[in-house]
Each structure stands twice: as structure tokens, then as C-alpha cells.
Amino acid sequence: MKKVSDYYPADGRVILHVDMNAFYCSVHAAEEPHKYKGRPTAVAGSSELRKGVIVTCSYEARKLGISTGMVVNQALRICPSLIIIQPNFHLYRQYSRDFMQIAYSYTPMLEATSIDECYLDITGSKQFGTPVEIAEAIQGRIAEELSLPCSIGIAPNKLLAKMGSDMKKPNGISILRLRDVPKVLWPLPCAQLFGIGRKTAAKLVQLNIRTIGQLAQAEEQLLIEHFGVNGSWMKLAANGISQSPVRTEREPNKSIGHTTTLPQDVNKPEDVRRILLNISDQVARRLRRQNMLAGGLQITIRTPEMRTFTRSHMLNHPTEDAEVIYKEACELYRRHWTQEKPVRLLGITLQQLVPKEEAAVQLDLFDYEKQPKKESLIKAMDALRDKFGENAVLTAGMLGDDPSVLIRNSKLRGTSLQKDNLPALD
């Protein structure tokens, strides 16, 4: 049986985990410091009482008792001066690309795990200095060039790097070696071990395993009996052991979905169709970004009583077309939902994804001549929205044969689609 020391990387791997601090709020503070910097802020979908949930909040707000997941009206009772900011995902993606580019300049071995965090394997980056010097350089450049704070963990593997980046926030740099695990991690409750959620931690407590140290010393067979193959992983993780490499290419998504909590309950078919139209547009756009086609579709419906229903079916042919997705979603809703019943949340999930180059696209016998022009129009619209934001272009009459394009952004009015290498409509 292997000892813990046998898992220590013989090649001396050095992994960084870069974690942006209160990312969404920090981006707004960087964009408009006179309005938001140093003030209690929170990003939420809405400031209205029922539907608003805090997505993230600034550290100034956290000191006052505000936390992620809190309902907006509750947060405002705690802190009446809390500034609620509407999310701007185009802006967040722009800043995400910028900070990732800074990190990438120190190593091509970068794995982005979300919009605000990434792993870096800097084992081969000695020309930039020691691991601490590289971490300081990345943190300093992100602060200077983007005015954003970040925390960085330095460790021999991804697990410990992730745990390290959480140790000092905001703007901290932490080193977590394998030999530090008994002193630093073992006294902590199991729920603080990355990868263990509240439900799993509660089950561990029932087994009288409360700390990471107790988990590290638990019988592996006992853990396997209660948690299956995850039991072995939990024991290794509690000992600070992880063999997961930094993956520069993420595995393709098995599904793409989007849900939206509505400002107020809706039950009118025209309101539902308008919402499904918007969601269809968003998921289709994400599908095209990944150069995938969807072979199946699922809709999600949640009632005011918080009961959730899903209905799905396979499509006749794989598609990336928002028009097709919208029609199928509306048909699923019509078949499976009584119009009089109010709805609190709606969502669409695209399933059975296949790479576009591997799938045969079915052309309509009567519309095949229009297909190239339609694809060119969609590409042009996607390019405009990539450059100027999601609200720059809206489609009117998406279901018609000749959808019109509404230019929303004042910067775009009078702008030719030929500019900046955007595809032409014809």
C-alpha cells in the first residue's frame, strides 16, 4: 500500500490557482471607481423584493453581514446604503479575457475553470523567477492594468493551490506544501475541503468524521461503503493528494442551458413566448460559440410554490438555429403546461450536443437557397454582439423568413457590418 509521501510529485510540479476577489463587484469598481470603489455593493438580478438574489458582494458589504445567495430585500434591511448593481456579463467576459491573458503570458499551461479563476502550471516558467515572484508579478499586473484584486495559491497540485488561494482574501498569496497539510488543513471541518459539499459533510458527521484530519485517517473501506468510489478520492484529498493535471483544453459541455427567474409570475402565452424567445437566442448563441449542434431540448418550469418541472424531447435533426430551438420550446410548453397556471422561472437546456463538423445539417427543401444568407446574418450579429455587448443587436420577427435587425448600441448606428472583419450580410 502506498504511503502519502509516495504521491508527492517527483517532478516538482508548481501549480498556481488565481482567484479573482468579488469579481463582478470589483469589475464595476474598476470601471466606475467614483461610484463603487470602497463602498458596499452587490450584483443581483433585480433590486425588487422577491426575485433579487445576491450573486456576489464587495468586501465592504461582507463586513456588514451581506453574503452571496441572500435575498436583496434582506440585504437592504441589514445595510440600507447597499448599492445594488445590475449584472453586465459582456463586461465581465471582457475583464476575464484580460486577466487570463496576463496569466497566460507566464505559461501556456492554463486551465480556466470559470470566468473568474484559473489554474497555471508554472513548472517550466523558471525564467520568470521563483513561484512567489511569478505570483507577485501576476497579481501586481492584474492590479495595475485592470485595477482588480486577486488571491493566488501556490502548491504542488491543483487541490492545494485552490485551498491556498482561499486562505488570504482579498489580495493574498499563500503557499501550501504537502508537509503543511497536517498543521494547516487537518484541524478544519470537512466542509472546508474543496470538493466536499454540505450534504457530504453532514454524512461524514454521522460517521463521527468531523475534521479533515479525521477524514485523512479514516478507513478507506468505510468511506467506499458510504460514498462509493468518491470515498477513495476523499481520503486522498484530505491528505493533500491530487494527481489531476492542468488541462489546457476543457472537455466539451454535455449540455448548454439557461434559466431566468421572472420579475413577476406570468401565465399569458404571449409573455411566455417572449421569454422563451430571449432564452432561445442566448442558448443558441452559446451553442454556436462552441461550434456544436443540439440533438435534444429540455424546458424547465418552476411554480411560485418552488415546484420544478422539466420536459424534454429529441429534435428531428441537430441544430444551432435559435428559431428552431424557440419553436420546439414553445411546443413543449404548450403540450405540457396549462396556460392558467402561473410560472416563476423558465429555462431551456440543449442536450445531445455534437461537434458541428461531425454532424450532417438537414436543409429544408424549400428554403435551402436562403440558408447561406441566413447563416451570414447570424454570424454578423454574433460578431457585433461579441464586440459591443449582448444588447447591441436585437432581432425582430425572428420567426419570419426575413428577420430584421435592430441596432441598440449608439456606437453601432451607421456602422457598416464590413468593418473590423465582420462578415457581410450578403
TrEMBL record:
Give the cofactors, semicolon-separated: Mg(2+)
Q: Where is this site: Substrate discrimination?
A: 24
One of the entry's Gene Ontology molecular-function terms is: DNA-directed DNA polymerase activity
What the entry lists under PANTHER family is as follows: DNA POLYMERASE KAPPA, DNA REPAIR POLYMERASE UMUC / TRANSFERASE FAMILY MEMBER
Q: Which domain of life is it from?
A: Bacteria
Give the chief site where it resides.
cytoplasm
Provide the residue span(s) of the region labelled Disordered.
244-264
User: What is the protein's given name?
Assistant: DNA polymerase IV
Could you say which EC number(s) this protein's record lists?
2.7.7.7
Its UniProt entry gives the catalysed reaction(s) as: DNA(n) + a 2'-deoxyribonucleoside 5'-triphosphate = DNA(n+1) + diphosphate
Q: What InterPro entries does the record tag this protein with?
A: DNA/RNA_pol_sf, DNA_pol_Y-fam_lit_finger_sf, DNA_pol_Y-fam_little_finger, DNA_polymerase-Y, DNApol_IV, PolY_HhH_motif, Rev_trsase/Diguanyl_cyclase, UmuC
A Pfam family matched by this chain, by name?
IMS
Note on cofactor: Binds 2 magnesium ions per subunit.
Assembly and interactions?
Monomer.
Keyword Zinc present in the record's keywords: the answer is no
Residue positions binding Mg(2+) = 19, 116
- Where is it located? Cytoplasm
* Top-level class of the enzyme under EC nomenclature: transferase
